[in-house]
User: Fold this.
Amino acid sequence: MDKLLLAPLEEAEFTVVDLETTGFFPHDGEKIIEIGALRLKGSEEVGRFTNLVNPNKKIPRDVMRITHIDQSMVETAPTIDKLIGPFMDFAKDSILVFHNAPFDLSFLVPVMREYSPYVSFNVLDTLMLARRYFTLEFPSKALGNIATSLNIKIENAHRAMDDVEATSKILLHFITDLKRRKKIKTAGDLLKLQGGSVPFPPAYSKKDLKPLIKNANRYETPLKIEYRTEAGDLNIRILEPPIKIYTRGSHALMKGYCREQGGEQKFRIDGILKRPELA
Assistant:
């Protein structure tokens, strides 16, 4: 298991992140206008990363009204491609934390992969934890409502750093409670309670991998796979033909004989970090 996941919760390193954006969907051309991050070691704050971001487009009026970020504030700000490297350096060797992780990851991961194609982090989601373990305590799981219930004051809601501060306090409250109720001790235990790391959007699709698998089967050549498990571990496996690729539910998988495990194994494609190589 990764050293990061074996860390006691009192020493575990988390980077809590929030984005403000011009809209909801990056595939519709919406962009990041602010990024905020706070790094924790256990319950102690050890660093901050915050910056306005030039989206190279007009900020809609309703977004300006909600965030109080106007066009003049971002015109001289760096674009996200200039900030993503320093942000990834800041977050290195930590578990990323979001409130509603899929939203932020939909904006962040494509930019991260442009900078580093095989980037991968373990990801916690305080919204997911709230839905699983705090149903009665917080009837509404919105960040502001949870914060209000816990007497956490958000000075400027819908500004990245203020929301990050609130999310950090909520995370620490959840950890304290779950340590008592669920007897968790390590960062890995916390990820396991969540049901595993929130997956990054897959780097590869079935369509991407089919030609490689076809060649591996045709020439009876094993494939070397580097992937992250649902529990967050990094593994390298050699998969021998015949290798099959298929879909089950919402997940694409591949399966074949795994040398290391001594039997047939299945691998979720969204866990693959690098393009498989002929071994």
